[in-house]
Each structure stands twice: as structure tokens, then as C-alpha cells.
């Protein structure tokens, strides 16, 4: 396992999976292992370079142990920030360490379903100028093109529970649905070509701890001539367990939104303010379809 060092130049056909981690308690550490890492190990369907960026987690030992265990089945680059930098800067650090030709950004509260990665890569190769691809999921926060009907929420991280979503995703991946062009993609799981990253550079760190930085990146990509697509046959679970109380819907994505709704709302408002300052009010609450985004001037 490499400690925060890159392996050299990109190699054709290689894939880097970048996951920022902030394990605050045992529940989040379990989620990383049993939801994200187990899904990647079981369902990637190909060798990957796994870039884990620990954002100064209180559970440093547990996160490092997960990275060490993952090194048995993936080429792992592990980096720990000296201080808590937030999601956006942690993603940028991971991108700078990754060496793959394709780059998959994933939140630690996601789980790739069987066939999802292959369908995402197929969507990226389906047409000229396709530079970024995203899956469908159980929670999309208004991203209608990435919304998919899904089984009832998870009760536990036991295999029998996870198999409900895995079976749903496997059935969906077998449908061979054509990709659909989108104006922007939700950043919980997003595949991009290295050429896109090298042309556009990192995410805008002015978005602080996250939210709507992916809309900004989409605007930048479209202005540079790249197209974004949704793979409607690639399913990626997003979120945590069903709780007795949660202000979000039962299938909502993002564990952060479930656990810290007030903080999340404030970060979303900050993201809206940043978008407005950069592009004007029309950049906020854009419809996700490509035509709707273009109608807003983006």
C-alpha cells in the first residue's frame, strides 16, 4: 500500500477510484467497510487503483486498517490529511494522486451494484465528446434523470439486506439502456475521463465542504465542449440505514444529510451563493436534462 504517492503516468484502460473518508464513529467506519469497500471488491469486475483520502478522521486507526485490508484486492494509495480539509479539497487531493485513465469519484456511503461500473464505462464510450458519466440511484435530490425506483431502505449492513439492492442493480444492468445526455450530474458517484480532469483542473475549492461543486464542474465541462451522460442501467446505492427519525425521505441519499440536516442545508445555501456569484442566479436549481441546462445559457 502506497502512503500518499502516485504510481506514475496514466496507463490506458486503468481505472482509479477516489473516495474521501471521514470516519467520525463506528457506524461510519462500518459503512466504509461493509457498504462501499465490499461493493467495490465484489462488483467492480476489473482491477482498480483505489485512492483513499482520510480527511483527518477521528477513527484514524480504523480507516488505515480498512485501507490495509483493501490492499489485498486493489492497488491502494492511502493519504491522510494533516487537518480536516473538507470534501472538495479531499477529492482534489485524491485526483492529484490518481494515475488511472478514467477517474471514478465516489462518496464513502455508496455501493456499486453488480454491472454498474461496466455500464458507466460503456456510457462514457457510447458517443463522441462524452467526458463524464453518472449512475442512477435511490436518492438524487431533484436530479430526476438519476432517480431510480429502489427497494425499501436498508435496515442493516448484513449481506441479506445488501443483496436486495444488489439484485435490483443487477437486473437493471441487464436491460442495456442507452445513455441519456444530462446538463449536470450528482457528485456522489461520477466517472470522468482523465482528459477532462487535465483540461478543467480540480474542483473549485471555493465550495468549501461541498454541495453544488459538481454543478460548477458540469458548467465548466460543457463550456469546454464535453458532454455529460447518465447511464440509466447503472445503479449505485447512496445513503445509510433507515433511522427512527430522519428529516429526509426514507430513500434519500447522503449519510451527511441524514445525520446533519441543518449543517447540510447551510452548506447547500453556501453552494448556491457561490454558483450565483460565478454565473448568476440562472445557475441555481437548473433542470438536469441537457436541453433545460442549455436553455439557462449553460
The major β-sheet equals:
10 strands, mixed
What would CATH call the architecture?
Alpha-Beta Complex
Please, how many domains? 1
CATH overall fold name: Spore Coat Polysaccharide Biosynthesis Protein SpsA, Chain A
User: What is the CA–CA distance across the termini?
Assistant: 42 Å
Overview of the molecule:
There is one protein chain. This protein is of the alpha/beta class and 298 residues long. The chain has a single domain, classed as Spore Coat Polysaccharide Biosynthesis Protein SpsA, Chain A. It has 10 helices and 10 strands. Strands 1, 2, 3, 4, 5, 6, 7, 8, 9 and 10 form a 10-stranded mixed beta sheet that branches. α1 links the parallel β2 and β3. α1 packs parallel to α2. The longest helix has 19 residues. The radius of gyration is 18 Å and the shape is globular. The protein starts with a strand and ends with a helix. The relative contact order is 0.16.
